[in-house]
Structures are given as C-alpha cells and as structure tokens.
Amino acid sequence: MTLRSEFVALLLVTRVFAQTPDHTADLTAIREYALSYTEKLPNYTTTQSVKRTTKPTQQGRYTVGLRAQTQTVDEQITFVEGRELHKILTVNGQAVKEYESESGGMYSRGEFALLLNTIFRPETKTEFRFDRMAKLNGAPMVVFAFIVPQLPNGYGIMEGNRTLVVPYKGFVFANAGTHAVMRIQMTCTNIPQVSQYRGVELTLDYKATKVAGQEFILPSRYTMNLRRVDSDVTMEAGYKDFKKFGADATIIFEEEPTAEQK
Q1: Neighbours of 223 (CB within 10 A)
Q2: How far is 170 from 80, CA to CA, in rounded Å?
Q3: What is the pTM of this model?
C-alpha cells in the first residue's frame, strides 16, 4: 500500500467515525425531562381499568381442568404533588369494600412517575447505552438500553408480608425532538428461587393527554406479564376520564414503600 492509499484509507475511516452520532446530549436531555416530569404535572384524577388474565400452567391436583380466569378491576387514581393514591372502585363490575381493595391478587404501582424517576435519578446508578433510532406511532425515537442494579433502587416484588427487591433492565423510547419519554420496557432479572415469581415484564406507553384544557404527556396503557411457578398472569391497563383535582380538596397519604410493587 502506498503512502497516498494509506492516507485515503485513513481519511475514509475518519469520515465514518465522524458520521457516527454522539447521543450523549440526547441522554442528558432525556434525564432532565424525566427528573422534572412530576413538577410539570397538574394534580388530577383518572380511572384505571385493569384486565387481569390468569392461566394455570402447573398440572397438579388442584389445577387439572382449570381454565384461564379473567378479572377486571377499575381503580380511581388520584395524583397529588407527585404521589399516587389508589382506590379500587369495582371488580368485575361489582362495587367492593375498602378493606377488600388490595386483598389477594397482584397489582402494580408507580407507573405514573415513580418508575421513570427511579430509572433516571443519579442515586439509582443506572447504566445507559444508546441502542438505536426507531419509530413509535409514526414519530422518530431515540432508544437507550438501561440496567438498574438491585441496590439501592431495584424493582420491588411484593409477596404476602415481604418485598423482594431485584435488578431490572430494559429500554427507554424518547421523542427524538422533544426528548419526552414515550415508552418504557423493562424486565426483572435475578429473581431469587424463593420467590413464587419466575419472570416480570412491563411495557408502559405514554401519550399526549388533555387535562382541564392543557396537554400533558401521561401514561396511556401498560401491559405486565408475570410468570409464576403455577401460572402465567397478564395485566393490561388503560386510562380514561382525566380530570383536574380540585385545589380545595384534601388527601391524606399513608406511608408507601419506595419501590414499585405488585
């Protein structure tokens, strides 16, 4: 190879690297969006409708002949000063008493703000890596892969009176222009064998939604897939009837754990 050809080859390689985009600025903008997300939201209420389908997978004395069971739970979610208050309204169309609201079954918390904030706050020590450019609902997205360690802020899996905190990983889809987060996909990892859960996966989608005439980016739906030792559970949730929460109303919050729970 001549000196000239070596120079041309080096120039071509340099141009290729120069054309490789640096997405550090994108990640910084997405982080800023995520950490200021709740500050820009109004106080509001919405109705969350969750369809939960449980399919037995373990053939045994108590599961032979059992079919998939479906349950629909409607909850009122009140979002005030960055915190969520849940109140179950109906189960399969029937009103329930307050003490029955979270007895048994599986549920998820923190979709509105906690998950997004946990992934991006510095103390979580999340690892990020640019993954690809993509399109979501026709809009260009910048996609980052992430890994959240078990400590200090893993994902909380509640079983009875105990909560197991596990690491999780996934992808964040953010609008390439506004850097608003429009989808979070996550999968729990390293779930201990003592748990009844073998797998936990969540996909959370956001969309522009009007509250009292103003437009905000809010969760629009989520799908959670749970694999247990004896069954597969799918939870599909949607949101409707977003209304501004009255300034003269009073809400008293009970103490809540810091991790998402099911």
Answers
A1: 15
A2: 28
A3: 0.80
Locus of tokens 């820009």: 40
DSSP notation for 21-74: PP-HHHHHHHHHHHHTTGGGPPPEEEEEEEEEEEEE---STTTTT---EEEEEE
End-to-end Cα, the chain, rounded Å: 64
The b-or-e profile of 192-204 (16+ CB within 10 A means b, else e) is eeebebeebbbbb
CA 123, CA 109: separation in Å to the nearest integer? 21
Structure token pair of residue 207: 């969309």
Q: What are the residue ranges spanned by the domains of the chain?
A: 21-244
Q: Which helix (H) or strand (E) holds 3?
A: helix 3-19
Tell me if 47 sits within 8 A of 74, measured CB to CB. yes
CATH class of 21-244: mainly beta
List per-residue pLDDT tens for the chain, 262 residues long: 454 544 444 444 444 434 457 899 999 999 999 999 988 888 999 999 999 999 988 655 555 557 789 999 999 988 887 788 888 999 999 988 754 444 444 455 555 678 999 999 999 999 999 999 999 999 999 999 999 999 888 898 888 888 889 999 999 999 999 999 999 999 999 999 999 999 999 999 999 999 988 999 999 999 999 999 989 999 999 999 999 986 534 444 344 444 444 4
Question: Closest by alpha carbon to 75, among 59, 64, 92, 88?
Answer: 88
Residue 254: is it exposed, middle or buried by C-beta count within 10 angstroms (0-12/13-18/19+)? exposed
Cis peptide before 152 (omega within 30 of 0): yes
How is residue 95 written in tokens?
């009103």
